[in-house]
Amino acid sequence: MTHRQDRLRGYLAVLGAATLWGVSGVVAKALFNRRIEPWTLIEIRLTGAFFVLLLILVARRHPMRVQRQQLTRMGLLGLAMTAAQFTYYLTISLTDVATALFLQYTSPVFVALYGWGFEGERLGGVKVGAIILAVVAVTFS
Known about the structure:
Layout: H1 3-33, H2 38-59, H3 71-94, H4 97-118, H5 125-139
Helix pairs in contact: 2-3, 3-4, 4-5
């Protein structure tokens, strides 16, 4: 495969991922309006993602081995990702997609401000710049 084909595949993958992500909130809200619970949607989404990834790994003959020392970290990452998806979908089910996206995009601001206010972390120029950009972005979006 040439460099040009690799780049095209990469652009198409990003376009596909962005499209699916953009549609997912609207589809989720439609399902919640039909009385599907957020936890049920999470189960369907995570199970489907597992099987798609498994099929890709099998088709590519990728070795499916995990080192023992990675199990705890992988488990914690899985729990964190599940919690993030659940809170996103729970917010959509209780309010709307715009509120969920607002909270998702401003969460780094709240984390940085929490660290500064309660943990005594220093707000350097990069953090302050990121906070300003995040606030400006959600204000004008």
